[in-house]
Amino acid sequence: MYLTVKNLTLYFGNKKILDSIDFHVQKGEIVTLLGPSGCGKSTLLRTIAGLEKQEKGKILLDGEEIDSIPTKYRNIGFVFQQYALFPNMTVFENIAFGLRVKKLSEKEIGDKVDNILEIVQLKEFSNRNIQTLSGGQQQRVALARSLVTEPKILLLDEPLSALDAKIRKQLQTDLRRIQKKLNITMIFVTHDQEEAMAISDRIFVLNKGKIIQSSTPNELYAYPKSNFIAEFIGSFNRFNSSELEINNSNSLKEEYIYYVRPEMIELEKSENSIEINVELEKVIILGAIKRYIFKSEKGKSLIVDKINNYSNKEEKIDKIYISKDSIISIPKEKRLVS
Ligand SMILES: Nc1ncnc2c1ncn2[C@@H]1O[C@H](COP(=O)(O)OP(=O)(O)OP(=O)(O)O)[C@@H](O)[C@H]1O
Q1: Strand pairing partners for 5?
Q2: From the CA of 38, how far away is ligand 1's center (Å)?
């Protein structure tokens, strides 16, 4: 394994911030730490970088235990939300800075900076002053500056959260492309679940200093292991056993909570599906998705998402259908309140 974190435990004062964290990351993987504000994501990243010291546990990188190695000798790159670039220098000089510290020749510096500028698609900006660049371009310079010294691993702490939505989406795609091209290992922190889904090979969900599930984006969405994750990732309809009646069967257990994703509910009857009588309350257009808000005859609010068909015609819908296969069942005792 390329990066191994074993039983990592850290306190601030007497508050446990990281609680027996265990995970492995493979070379060339991009892993995201996802979780609510204050769950310990940044602290975990900072501990890997050597900026915080754990009370217990070990960190191994590329076959070496790094706990007693100071940050600057760990060969770990770090990108923050704030770009931390030198404002009065050119793009080239900002990226070359770390290479000059390493005392590389001018020729080597020129070649390496040109190469990385090509990869982050900023070649024509080489001589521009940092202050003349947009936020998205500045963050690409920050990324180039971290990559040019060829770190063993790159840690990124909410690097896109200061950018507007469109630039942010573009940079998610760019980041993924660059990461795959260089085959660099990355750990990325975000509290935005869509962002985590868009860029990650695997997502580690943190809550209260613990990793509560580590899965691919699709597994996390389709097979959440706890109520916390089912409710944290994506939209959902939640049912108690008494709210979902399966005809001629009492297979639903009281000690479970049942979730159905909005896009899995059907507006047309299919074989063996559960039928619910509803009243249509509202239709919301979310661009590609048309979201229906229903009220069931038991007074429960239900969300159904369908692909937008662009029709403005008034729809008369008084029944919706849930196939048994689309129900995610999670025992109530796994409920973790954040
Ligand atoms: N230097 C510090 N001293 C004391 N407590 C701290 C320190 N740094 C962070 N904390 C606390 O540790 C907890 C975890 O903080 P951390 O920044 O790791 O969370 P996070 O998941 O990254 O949150 P966010 O998404 O809001 O950035 C929080 O309760 C925070 O207040």
Answers
A1: 23, 59
A2: 5
Distances (CA, A) of 202 to 64, 187, 196, 274: 23, 10, 9, 34
Percent of the chain's residues with pLDDT above 70? 96
Q: Distance from the CA of 237 to the center of ligand 1, in angstroms?
A: 31
Fold entry, domain 237-331:
OB fold (Dihydrolipoamide Acetyltransferase, E2P) (2.40.50)
Give the model confidence (pLDDT) of 197-222 as tens digits.
999 999 999 999 999 999 999 999 99
Residue type, 149: T
Instruction: Give the ipTM of the model, two decimals please.
Output: 0.95
| Coil/strand/helix, residue 300 | coil
Structure confidence at residue 23 (pLDDT): 97
pTM, rounded to two decimals: 0.89
Rounded Cα gap, residues 239 and 283, in angstroms: 22
Residue 190 in contact with ligand 1 by CB distance below 6 A: no
DSSP code of residue 237: E
Q: How far is the centre of ligand 1, averaged over its atoms, from the C-alpha of 39 (Å)?
A: 7
Domain ranges of the chain: 3-231, 237-331
